[in-house]
Model the fold of this input.
Amino acid sequence: MPDSPKHQKHILLIEDQETMYCSLLRWLKDEGYQVRLATSLEEAQTAVRQAHYHVALIDICLEEKNNENIDGIKALQAIRELHTKYNLPCIILTANTTADRVLLLFQEYNVAIYIKKEPDYYPKLSAAIKECFTDLVKVNFEMDYLGSSDQLLNSVAAHVRHSLRSNIATQ
Done:
């Protein structure tokens, strides 16, 4: 019998620079993660409303030619507003920021981890993602699925219909 599928680890990547997101997407997928890319504030807001993610990787500046842009922080605000029932762990990835801004991210937005984009930051990012999945995401990713949820619902519905017919027939 083939291995049953495992619960997938979903990551939302919010990054505007093509050179960065291409390599990150490839690397994250090679690591076994399911990744959705958002390259703007609007795409990030849409992604957060449409699907569930276990971890978000967020670049603060989502406009390459404008270092004052803080759309990543606005995306973080949207995440915090929409996810009041659970805390989506967010890892901030950025090349340019101030110590005051980093402090704000931890204090006001409950950021899990901050990583500065610098040469060879992937090992730090890998460790940070694993830490989030181990310590902050409360999902059993080793759970086996015996079938799709549609199959399960149809099976339960068929059983209920059979039980109802049996009960009616015996009355």
In short: The first helix runs from residue 18 to 30. The two ends are 43 Å apart (CA to CA). The chain has six helices and five strands. The mean pLDDT is 82.
